[in-house]
Amino acid sequence: MLELKGVRAGYGSFQALFDVSLEVREGEAVGVIGPNGAGKTTLMRVISGLIRPTAGSIVMEGVDLTAIAAHRIVGLGIAHVPESRRLFPRMTVEDNLKMGGFLPAARPKFRERLEVVYTLFPRLAERRRQLAGTMSGGEQQMCAIGRALMSDPKLLLLDEPSAGLAPVIVEQVFDLVTRLRAGGLNVLIVEQNVQQVLRVVDRAYLLKAGSIRTAGGAAELLDSDTIRAAYLGV
Amino acid sequence: MAFFDIYLLEALINGILLGGVFALLSLGLNLIFGVIDVVWICYAELIMLGMYGMYFVYSVYHAPFAVAAVTCIAGVAVLGVILHVLVIAPLLGAAPINQLLATGGVLFFLQSAATVMFGIEFKNLGLRLPVLKAAGMFISYARLLAFAAALVGMVLVYLFLSRTYTGAAIRAIAQDRQIMTLMGVDTRRIYLITSALGGALAGLAACLLVLLYDVHPFVGLSFGPIIFLICVLGGLGNLAGGFVAAFVFAEIISLGGLYLDLEWGYVFAFVFFIVMMCLRPEGLLPRRS
Questions:
Q1: pTM score of the predicted model
Q2: Given CB atoms, is B184 within the 8 Å cutoff of chain A?
Q3: Strands (E), chain B
């Protein structure tokens, strides 16, 4: 459904991605792992349009994302949960969710989507009138994921969803990925938490210094010596 | 003079009425700053043009007041959009000082253009609104009307910001500009809407101020500085802070004018501002980060 070919991107004169090609097929959950500064966040941003590629193509269900305005990308069914959540801190939980359903196509479904999100995260329903910035990190992560789900996406981009969260909450976040997949959502997830992410995805790519080094099935990568040596410390 | 008497009450009421108008004046400027992160130094000059608009449509072309007011609000809203497209949009990525200089340049341009086009004579609508006398106090009907209209204007803006999707986007963009794209929001469109709204508020202010003051090319100077002080005192970009600061300022001016001369009221207000800037440089209600 999503295919990147030879994507290059960066910030000013600094190039962060070098000819990255990857693919998310229908029904898949795909992980991108790699060390700090490998370009994982840049990869997510270039897909959702926060930065535009300098070369290459990004195609979502036949539409070239590089040819359309950045704010139209979410309308194609790609929702991005950005690194460090980026909620609107001085807006209520429900207003944050409302922003997630800003697209004209999503507005008539607002109540219905709100129901879905509140069923998934009962905690958010309790806190619907609370300012998002005053919640705990785990609650904010739920709110950020909930906000992305409001547009009823086909593909969810998760950027370091476990960063800065307590281990028990991290557990819940990865559980959630499994549940979302069961609901038919495709997921592309970027993580440093290699061992845990490889348990919930089908395939993964290893990104290092801006290019893809290895790709393979999750189980295969978990067993691979390079990954084990580099990331699992065993 | 007794400490609490009918004059004090009258001054307090006049302060509240003035505060409502100040609050409206600062709302537009605050909104623009909060959303676009640019200060329209020429904000008061947009109001000046609106006042001329009122003068021409009402006094010269003899349109009914309501028609003149709607024309004026719509006209200044269009001016706001033109200002954004011609001056602000090309400078969005520029250093703040360049943006200040550019909108400051527009201020002098508009003052000079008004002088050339309309001359320096003071003009007014020739309306004589009565003064209400109640319980021994004199309350100007024009001020009461201005206060009521300002309040209605502010309530409408509040409802727009709190109830609509566009309003939510306007509030959100002030908190995280970058990720608006991820919500499917075209920020350029929101900037245009906000500029039109800021202009419309300046237009509404013009309709009300023209009841209280004569219009001339430099009339902006008599309330422009106060609008900026109120916005800064309230915490620039903070709408609630600006609202509170407007009433604080108006009461200081009104009460200062009661015990001394009217000019002393302004002196106290400015001294209060300077002291507050030393004590609370972020404003009364700073924007939490």
A1: 0.90
A2: yes
A3: 131-134, 137-140
Domain assignment present for residue B288? The answer is no
Q: A2-77+154-232 has which CATH code?
A: 3.40.50.300
ipTM for the predicted complex: 0.89
Please report, for the domain that includes residue B93, its CATH number: 1.10.3470
Q: Do A88 and B172 touch (CB under 8 A)?
A: yes
Which structural domain range is residue B164 located in?
Answer: 11-279
**Residue in B169, B179, B187 closest to A82 by CB:** B179
B284 lies in some domain: no
Contacts of B256 (CB under 8 A, 6+ apart): B264, B265, B266, B267, B268, B269
Tokens in use for A167? 């281990």
B5 within some domain: no
CB pairs under 8 A between A and B: 66
Do A80 and B180 make contact, defined as CB atoms within 8 angstroms?
no
pLDDT in tens, B150-195: 999 999 999 999 999 999 999 999 899 999 999 999 999 999 999 9
The answer to whether A31 contacts chain B (CB < 8 Å) is no
Judge residue B22's burial from the number of C-beta atoms within 10 Å of its C-beta, 0-12 exposed, 13-18 middle, 19 or more buried: buried
Number of domains forming the structure of chain B: 1
Average pLDDT over residues B51-63: 95
Q: Is residue A230 pLDDT above 70, yes or no?
A: no
Of A140-144, A213-217, B183-187, B196-200, the range with the lowest mean pLDDT is A213-217
- Model confidence pLDDT, tens digit, residues B73-124: 999 999 999 999 999 999 998 999 999 999 999 999 999 999 999 999 999 8
- Residue among A46, A90, A99 with most chain B CBs within 10 A, to mutate: A99
- 3-state SS string for A140-152: HHHHHHHHHHCCC
> What are the boundaries of each domain within chain A?
2-77+154-232, 86-152
Q: Which pLDDT score is estimated for B3?
A: 54
Please give the angle made by the CA atoms of B258, B263 and B265, to the nearest 5 degrees.
50
Q: Is B137 on the interface with A (CB under 8 A)?
A: no
pLDDT reading at A232 higher than 80: no
- Across the interface, do B183 and A100 touch by the CB < 8 Å criterion? yes
pLDDT at residue B289 above 50? Answer: no
Do A91 and B176 lie within an 8 Å CB cutoff? no
Where residue B284 falls among pLDDT bands split at 50, 70, 90? Answer: confident
Q: Say if residue B252's pLDDT is above 50.
A: yes
Residue A68 burial (C-beta neighbours within 10 Å; 0-12, 13-18, 19+): middle
The answer, for A134 touching chain B at a CB cutoff of 8 Å, is no
Distance CA B233, CA B252 (A): 13
Report CB contact under 8 Å: A48, B181. Answer: yes
CB contact under 8 A, A74 and B184: yes
Residue B193 lies in a domain: yes
Token pair in block for residue B63: 């349109």
